[in-house]
Design brief:
By secondary structure, the chain is an all-alpha fold. The chain has one domain (2-15, 66-268). It has helices at 2-11, 17-36, 56-61, 66-92, 97-109, 113-123, 125-141, 149-172, 175-204, 212-268. Helix 8 packs antiparallel against helix 10 (212-268). It is rod-shaped, with a radius of gyration of 28 Å. The protein starts with a helix and ends with a helix.
Length: 271
């Protein structure tokens, strides 16, 4: 049993969200000031002036200092989404998870524990690790004396639950960060919008003719922050829901086979 738990603990290690955020921040700042702030993106080569017509980089630069923060969140969501995609693929294992569950249940229905072991070894991944732990305990409890079948089945179920508790953090890792960004992205976008509107109203409050450049800059800042913030928040929500559903489907598969293992033991030793 010790060997199995070590294997599960090793699988729980993943990419550090803090490191991802730091790298994304550096990339976002460099992109904002070097690419978007390139004088070639602006009329007369002046970054303080108007961006060239249709130039997305110059327009993004006019979004102000909040844009790099929103871009950091956007890049973080994209990076962590790819990381979660590969993590979920590893957790599911090599073959189709639904087919794997079906095949294992067939083996358990005919009390073929060895065959179920072989399927788990071939499948690999978090689900297979959890089920292997339960199958190992299945074989161990048969040697325990002084317990009835229900008590032994409960021991098997407890082993599966403990193995699941070890694997679950690796499947849920970084999902809280993505969920947080779904709110932060919108809030940062709103902050940039407010700052842009303050600048626009300041331009309108000047006596005489309003400062057209300051007014357009403020409006650009407000609109770009609104668009980037909403886009980042929407992407984070979609990403979180997709991967949370994948975790739930994996957990359901484990529960289904765990129940089947307990039933198999009880039926085998009935009477």
């Amino acid at each position: 049993m010790k060997t199995n738990k070590k294997k599960v603990e090793k699988a729980s290690q993943g990419v550090s969200a803090g490191l991802v955020i730091l790298c994304c921040f550096i990339i976002a700042v460099a992109f904002f000031f070097i690419i978007c702030g390139d004088p070639a993106n602006f009329v007369d080569g002046n970054p303080k002036g108007h961006p060239l017509t249709g130039n997305i980089f110059g327009t993004l630069f006019k979004g102000g200092i909040i844009i790099p923060l929103v871009l950091t969140l956007l890049l973080t969501v994209i990076t962590l989404s790819f990381e979660r995609f590969f993590a979920m693929s590893r957790a599911k294992g090599k073959g189709n998870l639904v087919q794997f569950v079906f095949n294992v249940k067939k083996k358990l229905d005919v009390n073929d524990i060895k065959g179920a072991h072989e399927l788990c070894n071939a499948q690999k991944g978090a689900v297979a690790n959890i089920l292997n732990a339960g199958l190992i305990r299945y074989e161990d409890v048969e040697k325990i004396e002084g317990l009835n079948n229900d008590e032994k089945a409960a021991i098997i179920q407890k082993e599966i639950e403990e193995a699941t508790a070890l694997e679950l953090p690796s499947m849920e890792q970084n999902l809280p960060i993505i969920a947080t960004i779904s709110t932060l992205g919108t809030l940062f976008g709103l902050l940039g919008t407010v700052l842009g509107m303050i600048r626009s109203f300041a331009a309108l409050s000047v006596e005489g003719a309003p400062d057209a450049l300051a007014l357009s800059t403020g409006i650009s800042e407000a609109l770009m922050n609104t668009a980037c913030g909403i886009g980042t928040g929407a992407l984070a929500i979609i990403s979180y829901n997709v991967f949370a559903q994948k975790v739930q489907s994996i957990t359901n598969a484990v529960d289904e086979i765990g129940f089947a293992i307990g039933q198999t033991y009880t039926k085998k030793h009935l009477g």
